[in-house]
């Protein structure tokens, strides 16, 4: 399951660094994706590189996007959004080792970043590390139980890779409550119930 995510950098050179309080980072649904606003100290050149990189990633021009994100992370190494997007770009281009390293860097900077946990779960699943992937999805959901991408990814993991039908059904149903119009999820729920004789 691919995650459509846009990470928006807000702030300018005079903005104080982000302070992490007890509440999890807030992710708001926008057109099927999530935007997470990050208050960060970054100059205009970093902002320009970051915004150009996001456009390149949306156009699936990963190599060029990666280049700009690397520039952004070199100039602003604490910019979480750039590390998350870098992880996403590496994963989409097939470099799972660099994807994992970028996402782990993002989580070292912000251990409450639900998108980073979800994306890391997807990388670990692709590496065949299913138990570790499950743990990452669980971390995202512990912070934001309504983060439907992690809910669906956990359901699929339990269904197809872990053969845990109870976990799969529970998470498909939770996802369906959040995204009631998803016909594919409804079909998977019916299939699971049919297999269980319900």
Task: Characterize the structure shown.
The chain has 198 residues and is mainly alpha-helical. It has a single domain (5-195), classed as Tetratricopeptide repeat domain (Serine Threonine Protein Phosphatase 5, Tetratricopeptide repeat). 63% of the residues lie in helices and 8% in strands. The protein contains 9 helices and 3 strands, in the order βββααααααααα. It has a 3-stranded mixed sheet. A hairpin with a 2-residue loop joins strand 2 and strand 3. Helix 4 packs antiparallel against helix 5 (114-126). The radius of gyration is 17 Å and the shape is elongated. The two termini are 26 Å apart. Mean pLDDT is 83; it is low at 1-28.
The level of helicity is 55-70%
Total number of domains: 1
Query: What is the correct CATH architecture?
Result: Alpha Horseshoe
SSE arrangement, N to C: EEEHHHHHHHHH
List the defining traits of the structure above.
198 residues, Serine Threonine Protein Phosphatase 5, Tetratricopeptide repeat, 63% helix, 9 helices, 3-stranded mixed sheet, elongated, 3 strands, mainly alpha
Record the SSE blueprint:
Blueprint: E1 5-10, E2 28-30, E3 33-39, H1 44-58, H2 62-75, H3 80-93, H4 96-109, H5 114-126, H6 130-143, H7 148-161, H8 165-178, H9 183-195
Parallel strand pairs: 1-3
Antiparallel strand pairs: 2-3
Helix pairs in contact: 1-2, 2-3, 3-4, 3-5, 4-5, 5-6, 5-7, 6-7, 7-8, 8-9
């Amino acid at each position: 399951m691919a995650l459509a995510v846009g990470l928006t950098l807000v702030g300018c050179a005079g903005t104080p660094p982000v302070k992490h309080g007890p509440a999890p980072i807030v992710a708001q649904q926008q057109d099927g994706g999530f935007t997470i606003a990050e208050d960060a100290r970054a100059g205009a050149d970093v902002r320009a590189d970051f915004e150009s990189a996001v456009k390149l990633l949306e156009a699936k021009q990963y190599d060029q996007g990666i280049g700009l994100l690397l520039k952004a992370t070199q100039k602003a190494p604490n910019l979480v959004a750039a590390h998350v997007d870098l992880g996403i770009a590496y994963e989409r281009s097939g470099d799972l080792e660099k994807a994992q390293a970028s996402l782990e860097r993002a989580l070292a900077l912000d251990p409450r970043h639900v998108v980073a946990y979800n994306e890391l779960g997807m990388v670990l699943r692709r590496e065949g590390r299913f138990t570790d992937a499950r743990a990452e999805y669980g971390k995202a959901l512990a912070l934001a139980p309504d983060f439907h991408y992690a809910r669906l990814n956990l359901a699929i993991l339990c269904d197809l890779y872990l053969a845990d039908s109870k976990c799969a059904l529970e998470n498909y149903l939770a996802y369906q409550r959040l995204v009631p119009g998803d016909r594919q999820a409804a079909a998977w729920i019916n299939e699971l119930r049919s297999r269980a004789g319900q």
